[in-house]
Write a structure and sequence with these properties.
The complex is a heterodimer of chains A (386) and B (142). With 386 residues, chain A is α/β, with parallel strands linked by helices. Chain A is built from 15 helices and eleven strands. Chain A has one domain: Thiolase/Chalcone synthase (Peroxisomal Thiolase, Chain A, domain 1, 3-Layer(aba) Sandwich), CATH 3.40.47.10. Helices cover 35% and strands 18% of the residues of chain A. In chain A, strands 1-7-4-2-3 form a five-stranded mixed β-sheet, with helices on both faces. In chain A, a hairpin with a 1-residue loop joins β5 and β6. In chain A, α8 packs across α12. Chain B has a five-stranded mixed barrel with strand order 4-5-6-8-7. The chains are: A alpha/beta (386), B mainly beta (142). At the A-B interface, α5, α7 and β5 of A face β4, β5, β6 and β8 of B. β5 of chain A pairs antiparallel with β4 of chain B.
Chain lengths: 386, 142
Amino acid sequence: MAHALREKAAVSGIGETAYTRGTTKSGLALQLEASLKAIADAGLSPRDIDGVVPYFPGAGIAEDFIANLGLPDLTLSLFVPMGGATCVAAMQSAAMAVATGVCRNVLISVGRTGYSGARVSTRLQQFPQFALAAEFEAPIGMFAPAQLYAQGARRHMELYGTTARHFAEVAVTTRRHAILNGNVVMNKPLTVEEHHASRMISDPFRLFDCSLESDGGAAIVISAADRARDLKKPLVTIMGVAEGHPESPASIAQRPDLLDFGLVKAASRGYDMAGAGPKDIDVAEIYDCFTFTVLRQLEILGFCKTGEGGPFVMDGRIGLGGELPINTHGGLLSQGHVVGLNHVIELTRQLRREAGKAQVKDAEVGLVTGYGDMGDGSLAILRRAA
Amino acid sequence: MTTAPQPAPPPERPMPAPTRESQPYWDGLREGRLMLQHCASCGKVRHYPRPVCPHCFSMESEFKPASLTGKLHTWTVCHHPFNFFFKAQAPYIVALVDMEAGVRINAPLRGVEASQLKIGQPVKLQFEPVTKDVTLPYFAIA
């Protein structure tokens, strides 16, 4: 029997601000600007929003949405504190809310001044999920994600022969896609040589293996699929969605297998709910806080075996026109860092066939992931149902 | 009224804020011992310290001294100082080590070049007092 949530919810609206380095707007203003765009894109009025899931810790909270958007009767206010896995995991909560009738339209939104405000790396230690890292790892010189995730990347290289050349392929391909998008922070071509020459941040991660600190806002609206059919854009349904929490969730150091992200648990549940598998995926937007994180998620998702993520990304396979185009908008590496809500927006555009020069021809089914904090994971599989 | 510009304070080392659960671990380091938390009911070791044994759910535990030897699980070399305190030390190796006692310790690895490192290499925990109250761990090649 099909899962009770399969295709009961849809991504009905998408909106984003300009992605920049430098802004005079507040994080809240960016979040609300993107929210208004997403609501208009869905063909709705702000009065139709009855559930909100703002990124936390972030700019706006439910009170801000009621005060600014005049929401008449908010029936659900949630935080999903999973770092970069938040946005896609929030889609599961939102799908549950609209499928059960608790809500009609749930707004998921992010607003960040990650460049012009407090830098992301300096804020992290204030998150409760980072308390163990703050106590045991910050004093010995490890606190930023670039450092904490680097040890897993190094182990993958030592065990499987993964190389900087493989990492570079992700960075260079993503940049090529970004240039086609237009609304991106990084709009100049990047070569493998430039990647290899960029300064070392935390070995094996070089500068161009790391995602951007940028300013911007993004938002989506999740509506019941039967209602969304009447809205103005092609219907994009949520076939499957899942979140996963790894063992030792607040400390990578103590995890039995450093390479077991929460996505290991989420992937099979997400595929099962969708009734789909890796072979059905036409385009994938993979959370790319670091190049290596993309390689490892492709393995976990079953596009290749563990240890084969490096060779898998080579030879144009992940580029537009390749077997599995990924991060067709430029991702967190080149477009902007709105904790992956831009990945959901891009996948929706692809399935609506609104992706412009980066359009994957005849895209029917796509996949998007989130990865965050100390390895939390999430994925959603979306389908063009129009 | 004008305010004279203040010189930036020197960067401070991030220091641990021990909890009621973790205090014995930090006390142990200060005394030159690696003290690890064991379940008083099923005997299993756990790190980092926490109130409940995830195997048998007992809330009783005791700290016992552990062997200082272990094997290299993986490492990173930190070049960019995300905290300016570490700028003078960069680049520095941080090793994640499988301790003989069955837990991992993450700590700087000194006296060796990163190019020489291999998974499984034997290392030994050392102690570096940084204040009168706080001693931090680091590793040396065994």
